[in-house]
Amino acid sequence: MAVELQILGRAVKAVQYRQHRALDSRLASVGSTLAQWDALRAISRTPGASARELAAATFQSEQAFGTLAGRLVAQRLVDRRPGHGRRIEHHLTPEGERVLRAGHEVADSVLAECFEALTATEREALLGLLTKIGGDAKPGAEPRRPGRPGSDGGVPECTGTP
């Protein structure tokens, strides 16, 4: 039986939407939002990164990330420091690290609930399939993000080949 691709695409989007709503709702309990926690996570992975790099890593425009970073600085979760040339580097403060850790606990709980209907084998197969169409080099790797090596700097297109 052939699967209608628009139905498949919508099913993927629906799962992502439910997951994001659950994460956003539950992250409020630790004083964060999904966008804020994702930004903290990106800064933690690449301390000293520029706003351009962090915008790409969080799938945001530079302007949107700049606004978000300003809120994180005002909340004393992120520290901005001068870098080489005009570059401004981003670092987590101790409070930012605390919120990030608390967010990891929330995310682990939410994601466990989201994927509890799948067996370990099914989760592994799903990761493999998503990795295959997402263009990642290998299962378990961080998703390739815009602006990273191997990317054209834009949002990755669905090409059917990694």
Written overview of the protein:
By secondary structure, the protein is mainly alpha-helical. The protein is built from 6 helices and 2 strands, in the order H-H-H-H-E-E-H-H. It has helices spanning 5-27, 34-45, 51-57, 62-74, 94-114, 120-134, and strands at 78-82, 88-92. The chain has a two-stranded antiparallel ribbon with strand order 1-2. The longest helix is centred in the first third of the chain and has 23 residues, at 5-27.
Quick structural overview:
By secondary structure, the protein is mainly alpha-helical. Helix content is 56%, strand content 6%.
Secondary structure elements and pairings:
Blueprint: H1 5-27, H2 34-45, H3 51-57, H4 62-74, E1 78-82, E2 88-92, H5 94-114, H6 120-134
Antiparallel strand pairs: 1-2
Helix content: 55-70%
Straight-line N-to-C gap: 26 Å
Strand order, main sheet: write it out: 1-2
- Work out the helix count: 6
Structural class: mainly alpha
Return the string of H and E elements.
HHHHEEHH
Counting DSSP E segments of at least 2 residues, the number of strands comes to 2
Mean pLDDT: 87
Strand percentage lies at 5-15%
**Biggest sheet overview:** 2 strands, antiparallel
So what's the overall shape?
Answer: globular
Radius of gyration: 17 Å
- Residue windows where pLDDT falls under 50 for at least 5 positions: 137-141, 143-156
